[in-house]
Amino acid sequence: MYPLVSAVKCFIPFFLMLIVFRNEIDASKIICKNNGEQTTENSRIICQCPYPFTGLLCEDYACVNGLSTGDQYKPDSAFFNKRCLCDAGWTGELCETSLINRCGLNGRERRGKCMCQKNFVGDRCQFVSKCAHGQLYNGRYS
User: Fold this and answer.
1) Residue ranges of the alpha helices (H) in the chain?
2) What is the C-alpha to C-alpha distance for residues 18 and 96, in angstroms, rounded to an integer?
3) Which distant-in-sequence residues (6+ apart) come within 8 Å of 123 by Cβ?
4) Residue 24 confidence (pLDDT)
5) In this structure, which of 21, 120, 124, 142 has its CB flanked by the most CB atoms within 10 Å?
6) What single-letter DSSP state applies at residue 43?
7) Where is the EGF-like domain (predicted)?
8) Measured between alpha carbons, how far is 56 from 22 in angstroms, rounded to an integer?
9) Which residues on adjacent β-strands are paired with residue 140?
């Protein structure tokens, strides 16, 4: 038998044993961060996180289009002074605002979705739901 295969066979059971021990967490030691509420579900201890937090212990931010800085967030830091590091083309506290206006003149983007003005509908606010002055042509305003 090859030495590497033998080493892997010994390592895998040890690794699986570590996973089993790691999942058996004492309930008194779990502390949900950021006002998360600790609950038990199917004999598993979980944290219910308030918005905008997420993660196993509510330690991360629910960034829409970017990466959470988590515990590294410090308002006075030179690099981690924002809760989220936004992907290109996105901005906002949770990277929820597009730098490109995807909603046209009839709406604003919020958390990746268009919030349409009155009488406009559609995923990009491109349809008129009520025609006041002018004609309605194939559901689009003219």
Assistant:
1) 3-23
2) 38
3) 113, 114
4) 46
5) 120
6) T
7) 24-59
8) 14
9) 127, 137
Q: Is the pLDDT of residue 35 over 90?
A: yes
List b or e across 9-33, with b for residues whose CB sees 16 or more CB atoms inside 10 angstroms. eeeeeeeeeeeeeeeeeeeeeeebb
Look up residue 133 and give its amino acid: H
- Sign of the CA dihedral running 121, 126, 127, 133: positive
pLDDT at 16 over 90: no
Confidence class for position 136, pLDDT limits 50, 70, 90:
low
> What is d(CA 82, CA 127) in angstroms, rounded to the nearest whole number?
36
Instruction: Please provide the distance, in angstroms rounded to a whole number, between the alpha carbons at the two ends of the chain.
Output: 76
Judge whether 95 and 101 are in contact, CB under 8 Å.
no
This prediction's pTM? 0.51
**CA separation for the pair 38, 29 (Å, rounded):** 11
- In this prediction, residues 43-58 reach a mean pLDDT of 91
- Report the distance separating Cα 51 and Cα 36, nearest Å: 10
**Quick one: tokens of 40?**
């038990």
Q: What single-letter DSSP state applies at residue 55?
A: S
Reading the block at residue 101, the tokens are 């206006």
